[in-house]
Write a structure and sequence with these properties.
By secondary structure, the chain is of the alpha/beta class. The protein has a seven-stranded mixed β-sheet. The protein has a seven-stranded mixed β-sheet with strand order 10-11-12-13-14-23-24. It has a six-stranded parallel β-sheet with strand order 18-17-19-16-20-21, sandwiched between helices. The two termini are about 25 Å apart.
Length: about 650
């Protein structure tokens, strides 16, 4: 039995709990970054605010409504997973799949008492640290002094939120539990607790539980996780790319195949091919540059951006605009540009081969040397202003447009229709992203570079079928779509914040027999197998089952003359049950998964038979015992040889 529940209320905040045997595993700890869009803009650069409809209480709380969108005029807070639903001190392991899915980690390690083990690849930990650090730096630069004077920090009260309409309140779900951002110290402390792992490394948690990270093809260092016991296999498929990644290693599907349970969490219905989007981005950049306009691209500092540098530079050379400069503005720009070129083992084959020449895997090192690419920690320095040459292309943070250096440039360029802003991060809806910055005359284009698994991909159906999974656990938002595409698959639906129990069909359980019990075992040969009867005490310690002698090695119970083995003769069982039913209808159903059900509605009797167990349900106790005796009588019976101990053990 596996217990599963989703702690994230939004699809982008990946955070799941899996309880298997005696072990509690957390899969990812994402942060719902889109919640930052619910706040007004606060920065050193003042912009003309949109027409505001204010709802203000006596202490100065302000909700700002702009068309259908609600904004909170207060200090930015973040929608975290529902971490209060689980005792974090009881979680044994956190498995991180990629750097986007770890942004809530400092909350867990520094504020919720988690003290277990954390596993992630080196690039995931390193780049995740830079993304979190960048966000903290941007948040610290915001000026919130007026909020303290107006009392706007006290907006998280039930009475004030109840005054909002149902439609507006739905835009800020679970707002009472939104939290202020962590500190740089929290980031460093949480990252220091991560145990770094490599692709396909086998990690032993207990004797009966191993973890294997296998590359997912989504971004640098991203993985899917395989959780294995002796007789069970669970695969967690997080953000993944089943296509051809351009800069990281492709998805490794072999370890995911033939799983008892696949947890398929981050799948989108449809999206354009990333290569087509990149072509469109380059074309739009060319149009803006040719008419003398600038291009603004808010983004995370990640591998996708480094690959995009190469595509844009090649395109600019192709259209005769090689003199156009690309700027990369981020507190982490220098660190990440250098780091991405010293980790060839985590990159695709083409990038790895360049390191053998030797050349840097990414071309941005060459662009920096030639002055085609310029990097800066911030736009607030005179150095950036001195080097700014228009028309140009600027990459930088933050993609939410609620903080960071992009706000300065947006305020500077937004009134010129020759300028263009291209939104490439898929987690931010363009309507709420830009409406707080209106009026805008510049072109606003939504071109999300989304490399996640797409249901409309030609290879999606074949990929799912080839997984050959017994059960596939999917979100409620994807359940109907997937069932329509692949009705033959066994999809199981989960709901956010609701536990889901999944029974994994298996025949055996791994168990360690103590030496004193083993000395009493004298198995016999039965149908080519060594079989004995066991009378012992079964216990579970640290996820491992142990079987010890009953009563400290003393067998006080009388030994039976024979023991039961095999499968009942169900035809004879049916005939004898017909006599017990006394003419009442017996409904016999044979299921595809090797199970059999017998139902006697008139007697309120239900019998469920699997290859490993038989369950009898009946309101009448005497009737239930009669049915049990019928089934036992029709089981094969083998005489016990003299002096064979009472042990039943399959070796």
């Amino acid at each position: 039995m596996v217990k599963f529940y989703c702690l994230g209320e939004e699809p982008n905040a990946a955070c799941y709990i899996v309880k298997l045997k005696n072990t509690t595993i957390m899969l990812d700890c994402g942060l719902e970054l889109a919640s930052i869009l619910s706040f007004t803009t606060r920065n050193e650069v003042t912009t003309n605010p949109p027409t505001k409809k204010r709802k203000q209480d006596g202490e100065g709380l302000v909700f700002v409504q702009n068309g259908p969108h609600l904004y909170i005029d207060s200090e930015v807070k973040y929608h975290t997973p529902r971490l209060n639903m689980v005792d974090l001190s009881s979680v044994d392991v956190i498995l991180i799949s990629n750097y986007y899915n770890m942004l809530a980690l400092p909350y867990l390690t520094e504020y919720y008492g988690f003290n277990g083990r954390i596993f992630a690849t080196e690039p995931t930990g390193y780049i995740g640290r830079q993304i979190m650090t960048e966000l903290v730096i941007y948040m610290e630069r915001l000026d919130n002094s007026d909020l303290q004077q107006r009392g706007n920090k006290r907006w998280q009260t039930e009475g004030l939120l109840d005054g909002l309409s149902h439609e507006l309140k739905n835009q800020i779900p679970n707002a009472l539990d939104w939290k202020s951002l962590y500190s740089i110290h929290d980031v460093e402390s949480s990252i220091s607790k991560i145990k770094l792992v490599s692709y396909d490394e086998v990690i032993n948690i207990y004797d009966d539980l191993t973890l294997i990270p296998c590359n997912s093809g989504f971004c640098i260092g991203s993985v899917n996780w395989v959780i294995k016991t002796h007789y069970e296999k669970i695969s967690y498929i997080a953000k993944s790319n089943i296509g051809h990644p351009r800069f990281c290693l492709p998805l490794n599907k072999e370890p995911l195949m033939n799983s008892d349970l696949v947890i398929l969490t981050d799948v989108i219905e449809r999206a354009p091919e990333p290569d087509n989007i990149i072509n469109d981005i380059c074309n739009q950049i060319g149009m803006s540059i040719n008419q003398g306009g600038n291009v603004l691209i808010p983004c995370f500092p990640s591998g996708s951006v480094f690959y995009l540098f190469e595509c844009i530079e090649q395109y600019l050379s192709h259209i005769g605009q090689s003199q156009t400069k690309i700027y990369f503005v981020s507190p982490s720009s220098e660190t990440l540009l250098a780091y991405s070129n010293i980790i060839p083992e985590w990159l695709c084959k083409e990038k790895q081969e360049k390191s053998y020449i030797p050349e840097p895997p990414f071309n941005h090192a060459t662009y920096l040397e030639r002055g085609k690419l310029l990097r800066f920690d911030s736009t607030h320095t005179g150095e950036f202003s001195n080097h700014l040459s228009e028309p140009c292309i600027v990459f930088g943070g933050h993609p939410s447009l609620r903080c960071g250096d992009m706000l300065d440039l947006l305020a500077l360029w937004k009134h010129d229709p020759k300028n263009t802003m291209i939104v490439i991060e898929p987690d931010f809806t363009i309507g709420k992203l830009v409406s707080v910055h209106e009026p805008l005359q510049m072109n606003i284009l939504s071109m999300p570079l989304d490399r996640r698994i797409r249901m409309n991909s030609p290879s999606f159906k074949r990929w799912i079928v080839n997984l050959n999974a017994k059960n596939i656990l999917v979100s409620d938002s994807n359940y109907q779509r997937l069932n329509k595409i692949l009705p033959e698959e066994n999809f199981i639906m989960y709901l956010p914040l609701q536990p889901k129990f999944i029974t994994l069909e298996r025949v055996y359980e791994h168990c360690l027999v103590t030496s004193r019990l083993a000395q009493r075992i004298n198995p016999i040969n039965l149908e080519g197998k060594s079989v004995a009867m066991v009378d012992g005490l079964l216990s579970l310690r640290d996820g491992v089952y142990y079987l010890d002698s009953h009563g400290f090695g003393k067998n006080n119970e009388s030994e039976p003359d024979n023991f039961l083995w095999g499968t009942p003769d169900w035809q004879r069982v049916y005939e004898e049950l017909s006599e017990i039913a006394k003419g009442n209808q017996i409904i016999l159903t044979k299921n595809a998964n090797r199970t059999l059900t017998m139902n006697i509605p008139a007697l309120n009797v239900f019998i469920f038979i699997t290859p490993t167990e038989t369950i009898i349900k009946a309101d009448n106790t005497n009737l239930r015992h009669m049915i049990r005796d019928v089934i036992v009588r029709n089981l094969p019976s083998y005489e016990k040889k003299p002096k064979v101990p009472i042990i039943k053990l399959t070796l």
